[in-house]
Amino acid sequence: MARYMWSPWHGCHRCSPGCKNCYVFYLDKIRDKDANIVSKTKTNFNLPLKKDRQGNFKIPSGASVATCFTSDFFLEEADAWRDEAWQIIKKRNDVYFLICTKRPERIMQCLPLDWGAGYENVILTVTCENQQMADKRMPIFLTIPAKRKFVFVAPILENVNLDSFLESGQIDEVSVGGESYDFARECNFDWVKNIYASCKKYNVDFDFHQTGSNFVFNGKRFKIKHHDEYSQAKKAMEYLKSSEKD
Ligand code: SF4
User: Fold this and answer.
1) CA of 19 to the centre of ligand 1 (A)
2) Which of 6, 74, 165, 176 could form a disulfide with 103 if both were Cys (CB 3.0 to 4.6 A apart)?
């Protein structure tokens, strides 16, 4: 499935341990920008509705759209812009919008009036980077209606036990990732393996999407270049799955 990014607004505020080395702040600092300033995107606010010269949508039908990954979709400052974003999401019911948040306590008050049991094309996702955040956010997340729900354990900071939440049968996929860039905290593959085992136990899809820059595999620490994080995560999972067969 083709993957696209749509950032209707940009900027955020740190609100939890996973935010410490947030890549939005890291990259904005390099560009001499203040990531604490939240602003509506000028030219690409309506990106999903934009068409090319041939009249085709720039984001093709069937694509997956990572939505608001340089901010948080449920941030207070975006309250004035969100209804318009929901309308765009509704119009493009032929693509999937992956909306990820560290603020599940704001989701209910920010849903559109016709949300009902959820839009078919929206995957709501909550981030649980450690056990404390999982225990705080998951009970709230499980009360929210949605057609599909994912959990991101990213950047994974410790062993996180999701069993009591996965057994609800509400979670479609758990995706784990390590932290990137200069100050990245450790991502230990043993923690990843434990979540993978939980997912298998409760028949939940699992993905290890990136190793992070500071990856510990079988007790050995590896510094991973950012552009290799995704392929190395894939290799680690291939190794795990092949060792299961032995
Ligand atoms: S919520 Fe996400 S985008 Fe916002 S500061 Fe935290 S990690 Fe960064």
Assistant:
1) 5
2) 74
